[in-house]
């Protein structure tokens, strides 16, 4: 798990499957494949009883290759790494970078699996999985794949902790357009899991992520601010900007456009109200109007009756 936490951002979501769950998934796949192989073999023997012995032997070898070798390869390719056994136990085969596998990955895994699973009854695969730090068998090593868990316990899922209230609006002027999505993912995953890490490892990782984020934004990490609090404040600022943009896009109307801007559909001219009538209220509050990033107002302070934030950066 340490390699996945400190690796690329996309790898932070990957949780390698353990040997017991992988063994049970492979056992279920083998049972299904053997049942299919027996049924197909009986059908072939019945339909080719009139052929000579050499033809029957060739058909037997072809049936073995198609059902026990080609079948799993086709299933993993079409299902993007989810066979019946892996589907039952919540596993999936992915590339080392976290992407879905293709035919060449399934082909290499299936070809090597004939030797390390079928011919050696899984002994070679078990030894290789126990030796590997990420639980990979030889087929995974040669194919560049990894078996991961898709079902994560609900208790381990967490939200990004909010920053301390006194950091509200402190980073409103940062330019976040140059920060890649991979770095945002790494920061979010660190903030949700920093309580599970060793304190020294957590502090070092926070400092590295904060340095990368500061280099992308052209700012510097304040000396009076822990790196984890800086990361939480910047992520919260990004979320606030996205929320304001989404709210402004949903509430935009032709009446809110700039003066003189053409509109696709002009509404009919309204009836002139009496001179002593009160002016009509705007359909949306001024905060709903999309503003330039530099003119976006800072977010409001939390209500007084709201509990204090639970964010606590690592010591």
What does this molecule look like?
- This protein is mainly α.
- 49% of the residues lie in helices and 3% in strands.
- The protein has 10 helices and 2 strands.
- It has helices at residues 2-6, 19-47, 53-78, 84-88, 103-119, 123-131, 138-143, 181-193, 199-217, 227-250; strands spanning 91-95, 145-149.
- It has a two-stranded antiparallel ribbon.
- Helix 2 runs antiparallel to helix 3 (53-78).
- The longest helix has 29 residues, at 19-47.
- The protein is elongated, with a radius of gyration of 30 Å.
What are the low-pLDDT stretches, counting only 5+ consecutive residues below 50? Answer: 1-12, 249-271, 277-308
Using the CA coordinates, give the radius of gyration: 30 Å
Topology as H/E string?
HHHHEHHHEHHH
Classify the secondary structure makeup into a structural class: mainly alpha
Distance between the termini: 23 Å
Q: Strand content of the residues, in percent?
A: under 5%
Q: What is the overall pLDDT average?
A: 74
How many H/I helices?
10
State the share of residues found in helices, binned by percent. 40-55%
What does the overall shape look like?
Answer: elongated
Name the strands of the widest sheet in spatial order: 1-2
Largest sheet: 2 strands, antiparallel
In total, the number of strands is 2
Quick description:
By secondary structure, the chain is mainly alpha-helical. Helices cover 49% and strands 3% of the residues.
Which helices and strands appear, and what pairs or packs with what?
Elements (H helix, E strand, L loop, with lengths): L1 H5 L12 H29 L5 H26 L5 H5 L2 E5 L7 H17 L3 H9 L6 H6 L1 E5 L31 H13 L5 H19 L9 H24 L65
Antiparallel strand pairs: 1-2
